[in-house]
Amino acid sequence: MIWICLHGWGSSAQLFQAEWEAAGSGALGDDAPTRLFLDGLEAEPVSGNRRWFPFTGRHDRLAAALRDCGPRLEALVAHRLEQAGIAPQTPLGILGHSQGGMLALALAARQRLNIVRAAAFAAFLPAPYMERAEPGRRGGVRVALYSSTLDPYVTRAPVHATAEWLRSLDIGSVDHHIVAGLPHAFSPAWIQAATGEPTPCPL
User: Fold this and answer.
1) Structure confidence at residue 203 (pLDDT)
2) Residues in contact with 36: Cβ distance below 8 Å, sequence separation at least 6, in sequence order
3) Where is the signal peptide (predicted)?
4) Tell me, what's the pLDDT at 55?
5) I want to staple 108 with a disulfide (CB 3.0 to 4.6 A). Which of 13, 61, 103, 118 is the partner?
6) Residue 64 has pLDDT above 90, yes or no
7) Is residue 32 very low, low, confident or very high in pLDDT (cuts 50, 70, 90)?
8) pLDDT over 70 at 62, yes or no
9) Whether residue 200 has pLDDT greater than 60
10) What's the Cα-to-Cα distance from 171 to each of 115, 165, 183, rounded to whole Å?
C-alpha cells in the first residue's frame, strides 16, 4: 500500500517527511511503507513554506476551500502515481495534519481514489462541508482521527462530529482517539501516539 502524506499549514513535504522518518518505519503499523509526501498547492508567505489553502477561522470558507482543493489534489495524486508507473487502482492510504488532515478526510469520504486507509491528526471536517458533501462508495475504509487534550485550535467536539458523520456514511471502520498533552503543531510525538495505544474517545 502507498501512503499519500499531506503536511499542515506553513510546513512542506520535506519537513513533514523528516518528522515521519524521526518516528521510525513502523508508524501506523506498516513495517516497510511506501510514502509519497506532497507539497501544498500554494505558497505560504509568512513561513516561506507551503499551505493547501489560506488560513481562516470561518467554517463556510474552510468548506469552500476543501471543495476547491479536493479535486485538484486528487488530480495531483493521480498524476504522481502515473509518473511513478503505479496502477490507478493500487490501494492507497492517506494521512495528514491540520489542513492536510482535513483534506485526507475529505478525499477518503469522496472515494475518487482507491483509498482504503486514512489517518488525520488535529483535523476535522467543517459542518458546511459535510452538509454538501458527495461521498463515494461505502465500506472497506479504515479511518483514524487523532485529537489532543491540549490543542487549542482543534478541540474534541468537531473531531467527534466528523467521526460520527463518517460512520453515518458506512464508510468502513472509524475511530477517534484522544492523545494527552500534545500541542497542535505536528511532531514525532503525534506519530508515536498513533503507533502506540491512544485513548479511544468516549461517546
Assistant:
1) 38
2) 2, 3, 4, 5, 77, 80, 84
3) none
4) 87
5) 118
6) yes
7) low
8) yes
9) no
10) 11, 10, 29
Q: Which CATH class is domain 2-200?
A: alpha beta
Q: What is the distance between the alpha carbons of residues 146 and 179, in angstroms, rounded to a whole number?
A: 7
CB 201, CB 178: distance < 8 Å: yes
Q: Which residues of 87-101 are buried (b: 16+ CB within 10 A; e: fewer)?
A: eeeeebbbbbbbbbb
pLDDT for the residue numbered 137: 73
| pTM given for the model | 0.92
What length is written for the chain?
203
Query: d(Cα 188, Cα 18) in Å, to the nearest integer?
Result: 9
State the Cα–Cα distance between residues 74 and 57, nearest whole angstrom: 25
**What is the full DSSP assignment across 15-60?**
HHHHHHHHH-TTGGG-SS-EEEEE--SEEETTTTEEESS---S-HH
Cell, residue 148? 489532543
Longest dimension (CA), the chain: 44
Q: Tell me if residue 6 falls in helix, strand or coil.
A: strand
Beta strands in the chain (DSSP E): 2-6, 34-38, 42-44, 49-51, 92-97, 115-121, 141-148, 172-179, 199-200
Q: Which amino acid would we find at residue 132?
A: R
